[in-house]
Task: structure prediction
Amino acid sequence: MPELPEVEALRAFLDEHLVGKEIARALPVAISVLKTYDPPLSAVEGATVTGVARHGKFLDLATEGPAGRLHLLVHLARAGWLQWKDPLPSGPPRPGKGPLALRTALTGGDGFDLTEAGTTKRLAVHLVRDPQEVPGVARLGPDPLAEDFDLAAFTALLAGERRQIKGALRDQSLIAGIGNAYSDEILHAAKTSPFKPTQNLTESETALLYEAMRTTLREAVERSHGLAAGKLKAEKKSGLRVHGRTGEPCPVCGDTIREVSFHDSSLQYCPTCQTGGKPLADRRLSKFLK
Result:
């Protein structure tokens, strides 16, 4: 799943390649991709892209055109991606069972495709007058890399929480942009069990977690900076230290990286670094380890 670093890299890429260009056509291919109907998607045709922003994991393409100022918001969900094409294939895309969800053509002949692998279709596109009209944007918590998101703000957020820290980090209404992969990476860097209850974090553990979060995300953004959109997935995978590396040696201590599986996801961790050498039970109702 694209998370804050990848979406931020896409934002920077599109800011360089898309701003100032005019949209010729926006063609939905998958029925499920478009989540709004007023204004219609055709309203962006003839509009110029004036800026590209990020809200958590949402991309926000601001446009100005015949229909006024509009925002095309994209959430790539678990298996979605943006593919830049120059030139864009000629002719209309063919609806079918392939990964193509939406094609945006520019007047200069280039453009981008939104694609989604797999059978679970969750990629979402909204065309709105204000990004806050999108419920997923309106409920977002603070951005963890925002300049004003300091340790005091992070501590205050966690003060009222009574749940596992892994779930808290992934909650978009608490902190925007962190998903399954980078929560694993942050917790490994902070030497914290994913099952540790937030209310049991000491002051020093909270400070360590905050620094691990900021450092992990900043380094991931820096690694992705300047890369073409098509290379960002490979960069994410190569930069992960524990997530997706079950059975491999921990790069810090050499212990074997373990996994806990759930019905729709899994987490990875190092027992020596994070849980005092104790493996977590690989089931949903695992006993908390402190």
About this structure: The radius of gyration is 20 Å. Residues 222 and 229 are 14 Å apart (CA to CA). Helices lie at 4-17, 135-138, 151-159, 165-170, 180-189, 203-224, 232-239, 271-274. The beta strands are 23-28, 48-55, 58-65, 68-75, 80-85, 100-106, 111-116, 124-128, 258-261, 266-269.
